[in-house]
Design brief:
It is built from one helix and no strands. By secondary structure, the protein is mostly helical. The longest helix has 32 residues. It is rod-shaped, with a radius of gyration of 15 Å. The relative contact order is 0.10.
């Protein structure tokens, strides 16, 4: 049970990192367009 919890937590961490990178990329793109 503990292992599964850690695994899902890692997936969430990775997702958050990718999501924040995507937000940064899209915001910088918009800033450049403006």
């Amino acid at each position: 049970m503990n292992e599964r919890k850690d695994e899902s937590l890692e997936i969430v961490k990775v997702f958050l990192v990718i999501f924040s990178m995507y937000i940064r990329f899209s915001t910088s793109k918009v800033a450049k367009a403006m």
